[in-house]
Amino acid sequence: MIKSLKKVTLLSLIAMMALTGCTSDSKPAAESKPEEAEFKVSTEPVTLKFYVNVTRLSPPEYNKFFVEPLQKKYPHITLEKLEGDLEKLILAGETPDLILSDNDWHMPLVALDLPADLTDLVKKSKLDLGKFVPETVQAIRNLDPNGKELQGIPFSRNTGVLFYNKDIFDKFGVPYPKDGMLWSDVLELSRKLTRKEEGVQYIGFDPRFPDHMISQYSQPFVDPKTNKALIDIPLYHKILEVFRANYELPGVVDGKSYAYATGTFIKEKRLAMMPEWASKIISDLLQAEEDGQAPNWDMVTNPTFDDQVGKGRHALTDMLVITKGSKHKEQAMQVIDLLTSSEIQMLVSKYSRITVLNDPEIIKAFGTENPSLKTKNTAAIFKYPPALTPTPNKYDKEVQTLIRDMRQPIALEKKDINTVLRETQEAADKKIADLMKQQK
């Protein structure tokens, strides 16, 4: 994972190396020939360096979705999967040609001046952007503040759902969650399920992160005009009220413990409900089932506030990025064209990744190669359309970290929400100002 926004001198060096790489044999633009505008790709053997930034891609998925289809259609193209810290790889002259990342973690790639504009390659290759779920393309277009560049192509996507442990509900005789619940409904269930039984403290609900809960509102982290954080606002007050109400239930805060999440849900099996990104947790649950350790789980639609009923979290798109310094952009585009084809996207869907194609048959095939999903409410994944993704800011990750840190003073110190918002706003503004000084 990329470390956020180091000193500009380091970034400048990395950016220069990413662009130049081993391109001493590249021709000046003036020597380009007219026919190079056509999408004629060499079939000479070529190796593309491939890096997975933050998106989960298991070894079986890598082989099934990437390696095997590529060997079949383009045997002259080989992927070399790079491992390790991206900045260190670039400094060592190992700049990737192709990166799998997502739109939430795109700005660190921009800070390294890596993503190429794919607009011309899309035209030359005749890639049909109309085949994608519109919000996935829009989420990528939002990455350019000017709305002109297309710095990636969708590969798979993610959406929020509420996971729950059926055994805990059965144990305490509480009805299962339903699609379409409000956060207030979840809190009511949490009140009934947070209890200690036979020495085990069961937690009814972990809200996870404030930035997850605000996602449906398409709320940016930073004001692009002022470079001030957007934290001390009514929306976050509304959201932190849900956190506060849950923390006040006896047993939710246990000593210094207040955030439980995946380990408590899957391994310890004492967390009843957890809202999370679907693909991430389903992958973990399926692995746990193979190991014989999974809870008796299911899922429903992501809860909402009453003014956001029927709306999902913002569009989170796993995207394929071609780097500016790549000498093999056309071959990388062939890889992208293959990975976004109906054939491969059907494979992606069958093996429980959410397709980016707006194709009912491919959507319907979701999870069919995983028998354990046949009894699950997988329709919850697709029921709500994604909210629009706000235009990102290069200081988003620093602000997001501080937003998540707001949970601790509310849970452990019982601080007033207004105080927490004010102090976090001040800390975020100071952090941004310090970063801006470093970059001058």
UniProtKB/TrEMBL annotation:
This protein's record includes keyword tRNA-binding: no
Keywords noted in UniProt: Signal, Transport
Organism: Paenibacillus vulneris
Superkingdom, natural source: Bacteria
InterPro entries hit by this protein: Bact_solute-bd_prot1 (IPR050490), SBP (IPR006059), SBP_1_CS (IPR006061)
Similarity remark: Belongs to the bacterial solute-binding protein 1 family.
Name the record gives this protein: ABC transporter substrate-binding protein
PROSITE patterns named in the record: PROKAR_LIPOPROTEIN, SBP_BACTERIAL_1
Keyword Transport (UniProt): yes
Signal peptide: 1-20
Alphabetical list of Pfam families matching this protein: SBP_bac_1 (PF01547)
